[in-house]
Amino acid sequence: MKTRNSIIALCAILTVTLTGCLGSKSATTSGRGGEVVGVSGRSFKEPAPFGMTMVKRGFLKMGIDQKDSLWGKETPVKEISVDGFWMDETEVTNSKYKQFVFWVRDSILRERLADPAYGGDESYKITEDKNGDPVTPHLDWKKSLPRKPNEDEQRAFESLYVTNPVTGEKMLDASQLNYRYEIYDYTTAALRRNRLIPEERNLNTDVVVDPNEVVMISKDTAYIDDEGRIVRETINRPLSGPWDFLNTYIVNVYPDTTCWVNDFRNSDNEMYLRNYFSNPAYNDYPVVGVTWEQANAFCNWRTEYLLKGLGPEARYVQRYRLPTEAEWEYAARGKDGTEFPWENESVKNGDGCFYANFKPDKGNYTKDGNLITSKVGIYSSNTNGLFDMAGNVAEWTSTIYTEAGVDAMNDLNPQLEYKAAKEDPYKLKKKSVRGGSWKDPESYIRSAWRSWEYQNQPRSYIGFRCVRSIATSSSIKQKGKK
């Protein structure tokens, strides 16, 4: 399966950027008397993304000041500042994640319908632009799939399905739903030590730079082997050009519905295994059984969807991504920096109604009105307009998990990232998880509580939501949080 080539998308954005600069008011235009007056240009007003709310930049004392009374665990504390960002109002639902899964399915179908082995209908591919000039072949999503497929087309459809050996029912072959994408690592490419010209790697003029110095870089790549399995590799090699920082990933996107029985070995949860993701009755519930790697793939797909509809202004818009651990806590605490996403320290109001979906008592999951997850957004939002920032499902962040936590981070937009290679020790693949879930006690749903999970481990109690940095956050003003 092929997706839109990210290299071409990147080149297009860079080209638009240069074109935009050349199209602005001439830099040689001067004010009266030869004064420097600057270059004018049309400002960009970022539209509010659908289903997201703006979290304005501000200040937070991150962590828990006092030792945890339940477990006696100390949580690192640090004063930090974060820039503004957009954040999903709710956790990503089954319905929204299904859109991703179905897009991958339909892209595979279109590729096969264009394949000579299945009839070779070339109209499913775009090979020329509107001027007739050749372009990298890519799928034509305006061409509908056939409603009454012929024999070749029917074979293409059937190739994506398998037969249940017990019931004889045709079902989607989830093992084929692989999504390939590429991400350019701008941050690593911008590091001075990775400059292509050796003399630019050190600004200290007392240091003699070896022009033959070899800079080693690592990049992620992936491919499908002859047996249809995904092979991931991290390649270490000498720096040769700017495209060395392009990383390739292939991820199977179907949620692991077996998490309901694997997480609870001595429970009768087969009903959730069979229904939770597939039954439309659960469409508005948070998607679970999604790994950190699958959540990142969703963010990339969502970005590609966005960029295709924005035109030239795409150069200003930031990518969808998982929130950093700091962003997540900052957003969850609300505008007053409270311990929970609500105003008081109790988990229920004066009428005895709970503020979140969690496990109030030992073994009594239903005391708050739910047994497992609940529909997103049924509890009140916090002061940032965000729902379910405590309980329901815990949420993936982009930050690696270390005991040092925020102590090891900068105090400006704190983040710790590590792209674990396949051969790395498993302990290096821990990612921070925040918010607690439907199965967790009160202590675990506090905004500052830190937890973790391995990046390839699906759970029935972990989901995610996306964020996007605000393109024009320099114009946002907000008082610091106490």
What quaternary form is this?
single chain
The description of the largest β-sheet is: 4 strands, antiparallel
Beginning-to-end CA distance, first to last residue = 50 Å
Q: What letter string, H or E per element, gives the SSE order?
A: HEEEEHEEHEEEHEEEHHHEHEEEEE
Shape: globular
Order of adjacent strands in the largest pleated sheet: 1-4-18-13
Bin the strand percentage: 15-25%
Mean of residue pLDDT? 88
Share of helix, binned: 10-25%
Q: Which spans have pLDDT < 50 for at least 5 consecutive residues?
A: 1-24, 478-482
Compute the number of strand runs: 18
Radius of gyration: 25 Å
Class inferred from helices and paired strands: alpha+beta
Q: How many H/I helices? A: 8
Q: What features would you describe in this structure?
A:
The chain is 18% helix and 19% strand. It is an alpha+beta fold and 482 residues long. The longest helix is centred in the N-terminal third of the chain and has 21 residues, at 94-114. It starts with 5 loop residues before the first helix and ends in a 13-residue tail after the last strand. Mean pLDDT is 88; it is low at 1-24 and 478-482.
